[in-house]
Every structure is written in structure tokens, then in C-alpha cells.
Amino acid sequence: MDRSVAMHIANGIVDARISAAFAIVSLVALGFCVMRGRLDLDDRLAPMAGLVAAFIFAVQMLNFQVLPGVSGHLLGGALAAMLVGPWVGALCVSTVLIVQCLLFADGGLTALGLNIFNMALLGTAAGYLVAVAVLRLIPRVWVATFVASVLSVVIASQGFVLEYALGGTTDLDLSTVSATMAGVHVLIGIGEGLIAATTVATVAKVRPDLVYALRRARKPQPVEAQL
């Protein structure tokens, strides 16, 4: 498996039946995100969503070394969830994945539904839920973002394991696939966590009102507790 595009599934790795099923699931889920996202959109969130999508697209083009011969890139689910919320965040990451697939062949076209499910839906949802939980225990936005990033990347990688278990086209031991994906993506998640935590903490320091998670997903805290 080419680890330089660790979470982008190529054509043929998962069979057509499962790929089609997850494409339908992803399409329905994105439709729901559109409906819920409209309730969140305001004068602050709309331009922020465009900036988040552009930032994730740019950073995903940059790979960083995690092991000899193994590199990874930011997935962006936790970062998007922290800044624009889970619904709009999932749409931002999905937009990036669609553009990458169609223009740069990053991830297979028949696997687009799988990639959207793992990175845009599962990764963003996990990142948001973890961030909310951490913020309530430790009111530090950079801590919440870092922990959420690491766990969201690992959880997204296990989404692939589920899809492979249902329709994998090669004969690999499932426990080996799961352990390998988790191990590599813990390292990728740490790199992503550093990037995401730095980005979100910087925004929170300058404009805390632009960080969705601070506005919507935690109990009121003194301003000094947010950083």
C-alpha cells in the first residue's frame, strides 16, 4: 500500500458492491449535512468555511515523513470540526476530496464514497465529539484539537478496515490490516495534531468567536481558559 496517500483508497481495493453501498451512505449523509449546515451558516461561518476548505486542500498536498518510506498528510476532519462545526466541516473535507479525486487522481473515482465516508464523515464526526468531551474536561483549545486530531485520524483509518472486511479484494489478514493502519495513523495523527492545534489555537487567540467549538460545544469559560 502506498503510504504517501495513506487514507486515499484507490480503485479496486474494495469491491464494487461495497463501494457503491458506501457511496449511497455518503451521499445521504452529505445531504443531511447540507440541511444541518444551513442552520449554522452566518456571516462568520460562511467565509470561514471557504478558508478552511482551501487550507485543508493546500496542506493535504504536503507530505511529512513518519517512518522510513512512510509519509502522511493532514486529513483535516478535526481541524474543520473545531473551526466550522461537524456539519459544515464534513462538507469542506468532502469538497477537497472530490476536487483531489477529479483533478489530481488522488484516490479512485469508484472509491470516492469510501474516502468521503472515512475522512469527511467519520473523521469529522469523531474529531468533533472528542474535542467537545476534552474541552469539558480540560478547557484548553489546543489540547482538545490535538487529542481530537490524533483520535479522528486513527478512527478514520479503522473505517477503511471495516470496508476492507466487508469487500476487500485481496487476501490479507484483517487483524494485520487493522494493526498496520492504526500504527501508521497514530504517527500521522500526531503530525496532524501539531498542525491543527497550532492553527486553531492561533485563530482562538486572535478571534475566539471564529472557533465553532468554543461557541457551541462547551460550557462558558473565562477567556483566559480558552487558550
Q: What does this 3D model show about the protein?
A:
With 227 residues, this protein is mainly α. It is built from eight helices and two strands. It has a two-stranded antiparallel ribbon. A hairpin with a 2-residue loop joins strand 1 and strand 2.
Distance between the termini: 39 Å
DSSP summary, beta strand count: 2
How much helix is in the residues? over 70%
Unreliable stretches: 1-5, 218-226
Report on the biggest sheet: 2 strands, antiparallel
What value does the Rg take, in angstroms? 17 Å
Q: How are the strands of the biggest sheet laid out side by side?
A: 1-2
Q: Give me the number of helical elements.
A: 8
Which of globular, elongated, flat, extended, rod-shaped describes the shape?
globular
Structure classification: mainly alpha
By oligomeric state, this entry counts as single chain
Strand content: under 5%
Report mean pLDDT, rounded to a whole number: 88
Which sequence of SSEs, written as H and E, runs from N to C? HHEEHHHHHH
